[in-house]
Give the backbone structure.
Amino acid sequence: KTQSCLGLLRMLPADTFMFYSMNMSYYTDSTLIQAMMENPLEKKAGKLYAPPGKLQLIYFIDDLNMPALDKYNTQSAIELLKEKQDYGHWWDR
């Protein structure tokens, strides 16, 4: 499945899209996933970060359900992804 998805992502036009592949593990937490998601971005103006140029960024996240549960019985990495999806951003640490 992973190779099929990566193959499709490689077929996207390189002048419009870029993709960034991330693998989760048992030890992935919200701090690590935030750092991984910020890695391909560049600073544009002020506090605005975006993909290089005018590219659209697609994150490919493999093994999404792998992170360990915390003491509140949640997965903090997935909660951060949910915050990004719901609100369009996350708070800086």
About this structure: The two ends are 34 Å apart (CA to CA). Residues 43 and 49 are 4 Å apart (CA to CA). The longest strand covers residues 17-23.
